[in-house]
Amino acid sequence: MNEDFAQNLRLLCSYYKSISEVTQRLGISRPQFNRYLSGKHKPAANTLRRICEFFDVAEHELHLPHSQFERLVQVSPRQVTHTDESIELDHLNQLQQKSSPELEKYLGYYFEYYYSMGNPGKILRSLVCLEKQGEKVVFQRTERLIEGKEKWDKEVCHCKYLGIAYYLSDRIFMMDYESLTFNEITQTIMFPTFKNRISWLHGLRLGVSASDERMPTSSRVLMEYLGTNINLRKALAMCRFYEPHDKDIDEAIQEMINNQGPNEHWNFRAKA
Question: Which of 12, 71, 107, 174 could bridge 188 with an S-S bond, Cβ 3.0-4.6 Å?
Answer without folding.
Answer: 174
